[in-house]
Amino acid sequence: MRATTDDVVALRDVSMVFGAGSRAVVALDRVSLTVGSNETVALIGPSGCGKSTTLRIIAGLARPTSGEVTVRTAGEGQGGLSMMFQTPALFDWRTVRGNVMLPLEVAGVNRAVAREEADRLVKVVGLEGFADHRPFELSGGMQQRTAVARSLISNPRLLLLDEPFGSLDAITRDQMCNELSAICASRPIAVVLVTHSIAEAIFLADRIFVMSARPGRMIREVRVPMARPRSVDDRASEVWVKLESELRAALVQ
To answer: Is residue 1 part of a domain?
Structure first.
C-alpha cells in the first residue's frame, strides 16, 4: 500500500507493542490503511482489538513501535484535526455557544468572529435557541450535538471519532448519524470512525475495515456502494442487508 497525494491519512505496516519482555502485549500487528481527502473510513472489531489505539496513533497521541504514519492536515481553507469522544467533554461553566467557540478562542480568533461562527454551527446541528444554555440543561443528544459543532468549528481537514454516539439511545443515535452524515457530505473532510455498531459504520462510511481480536490486524476491507448522505430507510435495502451479513460474518472469523 502506498500513500497518494490525495490521502489525508496513510498507515503502513504499523505495529504497537505495550510493555517489554514476558509482559509485552502486541496491540496492533502490521496495520495498513488510507483515508482520502473526502472520505469516511470506519474501524470495527471486538473490544480490545486496537481500534482506539489506531485512532490515537493517527491523532499523534501515541507513537507506534514500528511502521510508517503519514497525516496531512494542511489544506486550502482548512487545517488541523479534531477528535470527538464517546463523552462530549463539555465545560459546565460555559454555555453551548461558549463551548463551541472555544477552539477559535484558543487559536486567537477575534471573539466576534468566533461567536458568529459558533452561532452558525449551533444552528447547523439543530440547537438554535439553545446557544445560551449550559450543558446540564441539555439532553445527552443535545450535548453530543454541541460536541459535533465544536469539533467542526476549526474547519478541520481530518475528523477522528471514537465511539461518538455509543452512550446514546437508539433513536437519538439515528438522529445524530443523520446530522453528522449530512454535515460531512457537505464539506471536504476526511473522517475516521471507531465504532462497535455495524449499522453505524454502514450508515456513515465509504469503506469499513474489520479488525481481528488482539493482536489487531486488518482482516477485511469492505466498500459501501451507497451514496452519502444515507437514510435510515436504506437499512431495508438489499444492499444494506447484504453488507450487514458480510460484516457480521467477518467479525466472527
So the answer is: no
CA-based torsion, 49, 52, 56, 62: positive or negative: negative
DSSP H or E run through 246: helix 238-251
Q: For residue 131, what are the domain limits?
A: 91-155
Q: Report the alpha-carbon distance of residue 244 to residue 167 in Å, rounded.
A: 22
Pairwise CA distance, residues 23 & 68, whole Å:
25
Q: Read off the pLDDT of residues 195-230 as tens digits, 9 standing for 90 and up.
A: 999 999 999 999 999 999 989 999 999 999 998 888
User: What is the total residue count of the chain?
Assistant: 253
- Collapsed DSSP state (helix, strand, coil) of residue 44: strand
Task: Count the neighbouring beta carbons within 10 Å of the beta carbon of residue 196.
Answer: 14
Q: What is the CATH number of the domain that holds 180?
A: 3.40.50.300
Predicted TM-score of the model (pTM): 0.91
Peptide bond into 156 cis (omega under 30): no
**Residues 165, 121 within the same domain:** no
Q: 148 lies in a domain?
A: yes
Same domain, yes or no, for 234 and 161?
Answer: yes
